[in-house]
Design brief:
Elements: H1 7-23, H2 27-32, H3 39-51, H4 70-80, H5 104-115, E1 121-124, E2 140-144, E3 147-158, E4 165-172, E5 181-187, E6 193-197, E7 209-220, H6 231-267, E8 269-270, E9 273-274, H7 279-307, H8 312-341, H9 351-358, H10 369-383, H11 385-389
Parallel strand pairs: 1-4, 2-4
Antiparallel strand pairs: 2-3, 3-7, 4-5, 6-7, 8-9
Bound molecules: flavin-adenine dinucleotide (FAD).
Flavin-adenine dinucleotide (FAD) binds next to strand 1, strand 3 and helix 10.
Length: about 400
């Protein structure tokens, strides 16, 4: 038990853990059914999450959310990371970065129903030619009368099949802010919005990642988020937040894997002994547990610092360090867990096999490990080691 947490935080952690424990029995059914559960079961999970206050966990009270601090959110997300097949995504996070700029119209039309858990959003930023280098996007927004005309093709749009609206990032093609980034609310059923393709990915999730085309999509100026030129800053705020939440979920995944692999090793007999008696197995478990603890402390400390108001740039560096370390740690743990399970670890009905595939993307999305290292090195050179880790 962590002395780092208050008793109230531990109560929240336990509440989240108990809820996720209820989802774990549905993993294999989801895996064997393209990530889908029956509509009734999915609805029941959503309603339970809502009743427990685990919907839109990052939204402040003034916007109708539960108003959790960053550490509290990390504790909840950590637990949601313990279940495979994205069943934990029923614990949802809305676009909390929008709080300072949301208009009454946007609040009423999109954000309030999102906070209430009635509708969902998705994000269309990445393109075929621009992923890490977001500034390389070719999508355009052309000012036109009292609105804009949007064009572009986006890749990997996560949860597009479940979303009511999409945040579309583009560059202005004309006007005084030409070349600068803009972000828009776009209805998924707006004329000119289409799904080009639903590619298959390594994981088996009910949330699909569409390739989407936007052809002469006309949106009123009321759909612009913030002001012209603000687009990138919203993406940065979202990346920073989501990197820390990825770190938290990776800690949850690693803990589940360590517990499952340890239980299996205790009961599996080979050469007249439990395999947990062999040091080759013990060392894999010991390394995994040690690395999990380090990742968890980094994640909690970063979250606590954000709650205490540490400098935004320091937050940026610490979120990158947490994501880099926790995601690489969880992938090492998953690899070891597969090894401990032996042939069973290669079967889709096995938790280690599923996590082995699922965790791989945590080293890629919301900034690859290489991009995190670039951010960390830049922060180190500008601010020094003591500021970032002291
Ligand atoms: C399952 C999944 C879901 C996703 N969901 C979404 C979503 O909802 N919305 C969205 O907009 N995007 C989404 N993405 C896109 C994701 O954010 C990008 O894949 C990611 O940012 C990397 O971009 P890329 O794939 O274009 O790789 P690239 O940027 O082409 O990188 C390829 C390789 O080059 C390396 N590299 C690039 N630049 C440098 C450098 N300067 N120095 C060293 N190495 C470098 C990278 O680290 C990587 O190893 C998703 C991706 C996946 C796989």
């Amino acid at each position: 038990m962590s002395t780092f947490l208050t008793s109230a935080e531990r109560v929240l952690q336990t509440r989240a853990r108990d809820f996720i424990d209820e989802l774990i029995p549905y993993e294999v059914e989801a895996e064997m059914n393209r990530g889908e559960l029956s509509a009734e079961v999915a609805k029941a999970h959503h309603e339970k999450a809502r009743a427990l206050g685990f919907v839109s966990i990052n939204m402040p009270e003034r916007m109708g959310g539960p108003g959790y601090g960053m550490l509290e959110q990390a504790l909840i997300q950590e637990q949601s990371g313990r279940v495979t097949n994205a069943l934990g995504w029923v614990v949802s996070t809305g676009p909390s970065w929008i709080t300072e700029v949301v208009t009454d119209y946007q609040m009423e039309r999109w954000i309030r129903p999102t906070v209430d858990g009635d509708i969902h959003e998705c994000y269309a930023i990445t393109e075929e030619g621009a992923g890490s280098d977001v500034d390389g996007i070719e999508a355009t927004a052309r000012p036109d009368g009292d609105g804009y005309v949007l064009n572009g093709t986006k890749w990997h749009v996560t949860s597009a099949n479940l979303a009511a609206y999409v945040f579309f990032q583009a560059k202005l093609s004309d006007g005084p802010n030409a070349g600068r980034h803009v972000l828009f609310f776009v209805e998924m059923d707006a004329p000119g919005v289409e799904c080009v393709r639903v590619p298959e990915y390594s994981h088996t999730y009910g949330h699909h990642h569409w390739e989407m085309k936007f052809s002469d999509v006309r949106v009123p100026k009321e759909n612009l988020v913030g002001s012209e030129g603000d687009g990138m800053s919203f993406s940065h705020a979202w990346f920073r937040y989501e990197r820390l939440m990825i770190a938290a979920r990776c800690c949850g995944a690693a803990e589940r894997l360590i517990e499952e692999a340890t239980a299996f090793a205790e009961q599996r007999q080979a050469y007249g002994s439990s395999i947990a008696d062999y040091q080759a197995i013990q060392f894999m478990l010991a390394d995994s547990l040690t690395e999990l603890w380090a990742a968890r402390l980094m994640t909690y400390e970063t979250a606590r610092g954000i709650d205490a108001g540490v400098d935004l740039k320091v937050q940026h560096g610490q979120c990158s360090m947490s994501k880099l370390y926790a995601s690489e740690m969880a992938n090492r743990v998953a690899d070891r867990a597969v090894q401990i399970f032996g042939g069973r670890g290669f079967m889709r009905e096995n938790v280690a096999e599923r996590f082995f595939r699922e965790l791989r993307v945590d080293r890629i999305w919301e900034g690859t490990s290489e991009i995190q290292r670039i951010i960390i090195a830049n922060q180190l050179r500008k601010r020094g080691a003591a500021t970032l880790t002291g």
